Amino acid sequence: MALKTWLQRVTLLIPLAMTLAGCGSTQPGPAPIPASSSPTPTQDTVPLANEDETTPVAGEPGSYERFDISEDLHVRKVQEGVFVITHAFPWPGNSMIVEVTPSDLVLVDTPYTPEATRDVLAWVEAQLGERDITAINTGYHYDNLGGNSYLIEQGIPVYGSALTAELLEERGEEIRAMTLEWLQAPQYQRYREAHESLPYVAPTHLFDLDEGLQLEFGDETVQVYYPGPSHAVDNVVVYFPDRKLLFGGCMIIGWDSVGNTSDADLDAWPDSVRNLSQFDFDLLVPGHGDRLDPVLIEHTINLLTEFRE
Known about the structure:
Layout: E1 9-11, E2 65-70, E3 73-79, E4 82-88, E5 92-101, E6 104-108, H1 114-128, E7 132-136, H2 142-145, H3 148-153, E8 158-161, H4 162-182, H5 189-196, E9 205-207, E10 213-217, E11 220-225, E12 237-240, E13 245-249, H6 269-274, E14 283-286, H7 296-308
Parallel strand pairs: 6-7, 7-8, 8-9, 13-14
Antiparallel strand pairs: 1-10, 2-3, 3-4, 4-5, 5-6, 10-11, 11-12, 12-13
């Protein structure tokens, strides 16, 4: 499958009124954008109707058109040109495709495996035609970047923080060992075998957490922002201001329990989530779970508060 890669230009984003931790190298680019230049959303979210033509409620499970790619893999069209990908391998994890120009797509995180990532991009090409693709990893866990090896084989640029690359090298095998312990039951055999051989490949284009990243495609801007430690110390969010769309990733809890906290900073996590209130969004995509509503901010903080008590 031919997937060309092209990026119009990259600028670094000045930190937003807070002290941010980070390390690694900075990508070169034009002059930074002033910290006072906050994004102004210009497009409302319009969810698709269900097949029974009832009026959906934005962000609620079941309110969007769904496409099944395989038994473990499906896509929901949550906005014009925006697709949330869910890969259950074995736990459902979310990534996202956004059509930012008629020729460009942005992939935020990947499915768990290179094979599932290949299948998603084949589906996208069949639905939308051949496009230039840019990928962004929001953290170093395999539900953020498990498909990187396929992307890089296709020549697709993959952006991630320098800390993400560093943590993947230092702790990736610890995460693999922990996952394999969770997958010992016989019904998990095919997942265990896949995770045993899953290649952990770092992003190819690194940025500093304390500077963030801004990508521009025609008239559309994509902002990558680090609000502080959370589910993992390197988790970032990705904001599409023109669409009022925020990919919160594993920082945002979409289920009714906190889940895995082995890598979490439980003291900083609630405040990091509160820092997202500076963004104006109608859709919020968590790393796991079907809900996409902005109330997930409060939901996440409440769960973390109860968990710590």
